[in-house]
Amino acid sequence: MGFYCLVRGDRFAITHAPATAPDAGMPGEPTAIVMPICNEPVDRVFAGLRAIYDSLDRIGALPHFHFFVLSDSADPATIVREEEAWAEWGRAVDGFDRIFYRRRRVRLRRKSGNVADFCRRWGARYPYMVMLDATAS
């Protein structure tokens, strides 16, 4: 395979991608931007999501995206801060039609279980999904 690509070229190489109009790559249906969290630093998580939201809004792409915060947090104080941060963000941008928060009561397999549950319940509505990770580094 390597020799063939070397001699004939790789037809899938990004350098062979056709030039497109800026909006041509946007899907017709919304893309889900999914952030699974479990007792993460609430301010950092929501600030990062808000930065993505604002960036998409600035370039006019926001109508193509829905945001999902999938919580498996167990600490009551963290849960309250998550819900307050979500409500504040939604009110600030009038975005409750595109910003969603869900906390599972049964926390099977933590983040991976939450993402699997999201895909089973709502995945068919979203042909594309961007998976984010809030794990501290």
What does this structure look like?
There is one protein chain. It contains 4 helices and 4 strands; from the N terminus they run αβαβαβαβ. With 137 residues, it is α/β, with parallel strands linked by helices. Strand 1, helix 2 (42-58) and strand 2 (65-71) form a beta-alpha-beta unit. 21% of the residues are buried. It has helices spanning 2-8, 42-58, 76-93, 110-122; strands at residues 31-37, 65-71, 99-103, 129-131. The model is unreliable at 1-6 and 16-22 (pLDDT under 50).
How is the secondary structure organized here?
Blueprint: H1 2-8, E1 31-37, H2 42-58, E2 65-71, H3 76-93, E3 99-103, H4 110-122, E4 129-131
Helix pairs in contact: 2-3
Brief description of this entry?
With 137 residues, the chain is an alpha/beta fold.
Query: What is the β-strand count?
Result: 4
Strand content: 15-25%
Span from first to last CA? 38 Å
Radius of gyration: 18 Å
Structural class: alpha/beta
Overall geometry comes to globular
Helix content: 40-55%
Strand order of the largest sheet: 3-2-1-4
* Low-pLDDT segments: 1-6, 16-22
Secondary structure tally, helices: 4
Q: What is the succession of H and E elements?
A: HEHEHEHE
Please give the largest β-sheet: 4 strands, parallel
Mean pLDDT over all positions: 83
